[in-house]
Design goal:
By secondary structure, the protein is of the alpha+beta class. The protein has a domain at 39-129: Beta-lactamase Inhibitory Protein, Chain:B, domain 1. 34% of the residues lie in helices and 24% in strands. It has four helices and five strands. The chain has helices at residues 8-33, 48-53, 61-68, 145-157; strands at residues 38-43, 73-74, 81-91, 98-109, 115-121. The longest helix has 26 residues, at 8-33. The mean pLDDT is 78.
Length: 158
């Protein structure tokens, strides 16, 4: 008996093929969903509303720290400045993390620790805040795998 196009056995095979195709498309979609870039923020995020609450000539240093939290760093030699730094970074699915925006908010205080001035520095103000992305060298970073293995064997031999 000759098998036709619409036999029960060919129908089962076609049904299995469609199920596998749908499953493959779903898996492909899930894999592609993980290929999105991740955006992260590092440091203190200060929004416009928080800045508006701080009034030069009125708000003191303790009030700024109570509102915004601990500063990223303070000025050297009692300069009367505190700094809040924020970096927004993007990490592509198959790439290195890079900084897209960097904002530095500087609070300048007078001798009685009252806010004298507020400066916001970023790319829009024309002040690019440089960051050195170099790593601090640590022992072992500059050795090859073979050098590390042989140095371990040399130490054990002594």
């Amino acid at each position: 008996m000759a098998r036709g196009l619409f036999d029960a056995s060919s129908h089962r095979g076609l049904l299995m093929f469609h199920r596998l195709t749908v499953l493959a498309i779903m898996m492909f979609g899930i894999v592609l969903g993980g290929c999105d870039a991740r955006v992260s923020s590092h440091g203190q995020v200060i929004d416009e509303a928080e800045l508006n609450e701080i009034e030069p000539g009125v708000t003191n240093r303790a009030g700024v720290i109570a509102l915004l939290g601990r500063p990223s760093f303070e000025g050297a030699f009692e300069s009367g400045k505190i700094y809040y730094l924020n970096d927004v970074m993007i990490e592509p699915a198959a790439g290195r993390k890079r900084t897209t925006t960097r904002t530095l908010v500087v609070f300048i205080f007078d001798d009685s620790n009252v806010v004298e001035d507020i400066e916001v520095r970023d790319e829009s103000t024309g002040q690019v805040i440089a960051n050195l992305d170099k790593k601090t060298p640590t022992p072992g970073d500059n050795y090859t795998l073979a050098e590390q293995l042989f140095s371990t064997l040399r130490r054990r031999g002594n």
